[in-house]
Amino acid sequence: MSDQIFKTLVAEGIESALSIKQASGGREKVYSSISAKNLSNLDFRLGRQIHFCIDKDRSETGKKEALKAARKLRAKGIEVFIHEPKGEIPNNSKGIDFQDVHQDGQDGLEIIRMTILNSSISFDDILPDKLYRLSDVKEIETHWLCYPYFPQAKLIIVEGDPGIGKSTLCLKWVAELSQGLGFFGLEPIEPTIILLLCSEDGLEDTIKPRLNKAGGDHSRIFAYKAPMILNDEGREKLEELILATKCKLIVIDPLVSLLGGMDMNKANDVRCALNILIELADKYQVTIIALRHLVKGDRSKAIYRGIGSIDFTAACRSVLHVAKNPEKENSGVIFHIKSNLAPLGDAQGYDIVDGKIVWTGKSNIKMEDTMVDSHPKKSASLESAVTFLEEYLANGPALAQDIFADARAKDIKDKTLYRAK
Predict the structure, then answer these.
(1) What is d(CA 76, CA 255) in angstroms, rounded to the nearest whole number?
(2) What is the CA radius of gyration of the chain?
(3) CA-wise closest residue to 406 among 395, 415, 417, 397
(4) 35, 309, 354, 383 — which has fewest CB within 10 A?
(5) What is the pLDDT of residues 361-401, one digit of tens each?
(6) DSSP assignment string, 57-104
């Protein structure tokens, strides 16, 4: 290398520091902070230019700590550059460092040298975490497990009353995906790996028998049974499971099992928990389907019927509502009630035959016909008008003008009488 290119180089680990020292031919001053957490706490009095050589890890801890240190140093007039290893992080690893690059021998040393010489990023060009310049953002196409119902790498809610077959329905999708069969009998997809987080049902007596009926490639299906809550510890555990299984679909049954003692009606609490799922879905390109029960009683619109805050629905990119078919026993309908990335899909029907889900194709059932409590109770005035009409017409037809006249005499308004018809 040429004479003294850098003033000060600081690596996270000792091994990375030694690799960088060797790549420089021993000419550069290279220090180790021992860990990423120490980067922002070091007292640098070693020159007017600092180069942080951080690890490239999924948590981005090194980058975050280097940025903290850079802000302090910039306030002192010190120029700061940040470098990280080139290449992708292996699926079974949390990150890579400069020692990993060094293990490629002379080629690795040359890559380290060129990375630090030519790929330095001035702190002036680095935006704060989660702040993006739109000119740097590349548009990407949405991919689908099943268009338009299941966008990949997004959070999706499937909701319905208890006992309606939501779990059996999801296991049908799991079985299909493990074999590469299209949902609802639609276009085939590539077989993939699925992770089940099913706290309510037993593996041996419920989930396995249902999967046996649904079919599928069970070697591609994993189930995790230990308790988990969507907090920092839960995030770490879920990330570990994703890396261990290499899954591309997670089914959470039910979603409430991951919320602990959270108040599900508080938007802030709901968002904090769901953001963990949303971020992991995006980071690992994993689709997450979460099952949710409905509230008791009536709400006029289906989109408001899910238990808890409306933020459950708002945070998801797609919501499916499962209901009984009012015209047929052991039959159901799946309604697409929310979609951010495509037009709403057609309602899809299914039968339950000997515990198996059988797709029946597009359904013409209207959602309002499946909502038992969707019609408001009649008011006292409407009840009076109905009774009046039944008694008035008990002996046969009558002239409308006579009916209205007699109704007015009984203080029944015209518009109420029209409704009573």
Answers:
(1) 49
(2) 31
(3) 417
(4) 354
(5) 999 999 888 875 544 555 677 888 888 888 788 777 888 88
(6) ETT-HHHHHHHHHHHHHHHTT-EEEEE---SPPPTT-SEE-HHHHHTT
Question: Over 90: is that where the pLDDT of 211 sits?
Answer: yes
Question: Which of 200, 265, 251 is closest to 221 using CA atoms?
Answer: 251
**Residue 265: its pLDDT value, please?**
79
Percent residues over pLDDT 70 in the chain: 87
Q: Is 223 helix (H, G, I), strand (E, B) or coil?
A: strand
Name, in order, each residue with C-beta under 8 angstroms of 216's C-beta and a sequence gap of 6 or more: 174, 175, 176, 177, 178, 179
Buried b (16+ CB within 10 A) or exposed e, 95-119: bbbbbbbbeeeeebbebbbebbeee
Banded model confidence at residue 2, pLDDT cuts 50, 70, 90? very low
Q: CA-to-CA distance for 228 and 207, rounded, in angstroms?
A: 19
Of 182-186, 283-287, 324-328, 337-341, give the lowest mean pLDDT range. Answer: 182-186
Structural contact between residues 162 and 325, judged by C-beta atoms closer than 8 angstroms? no
Write down the pLDDT at residue 209.
93
Across 170-207, b (16+ Cβ under 10 Å) vs e yields bbbbbbbbbeebebbebeebebbbbbbbbeebeeeeeb
DSSP for 247-277 reads -SEEEEE-GGGGSTT--TT-HHHHHHHHHHH
d(CA 30, CA 39): 14
- What pLDDT, on the 0 to 100 scale, is given for residue 355? 87
Is pLDDT of 284 > 90? yes
**Tokens encoding 198:** 């099913």
SS3 56: strand
Which pair of tokens denotes residue 274?
């769901």
Q: What's the pLDDT score for residue 1?
A: 35
Bridge partners, residue 10, by sequence: 31, 52
Report residue 127 as tokens. Answer: 């935006």
User: For 317-385, what is the HEC assignment?
Assistant: CEEEEEEECCCCCCEEEEEEEEECCCCCCCCEEEEEECCEEEEEEECCCCHHHHCCCCCCCCCHHHHHH
Check: CB of residue 118 under 8 Å from CB of residue 38: no
Q: Are 166 and 157 in contact (CB under 8 A)?
A: no
The mean pLDDT value for 128-151 works out to 86
pLDDT at residue 159 tops 60 = yes
Q: Which two tokens stand for residue 311?
A: 């933020």
Cα angle value 178/249/356 (rounded, 5°): 50
Residue 289, H or E segment: strand 287-292
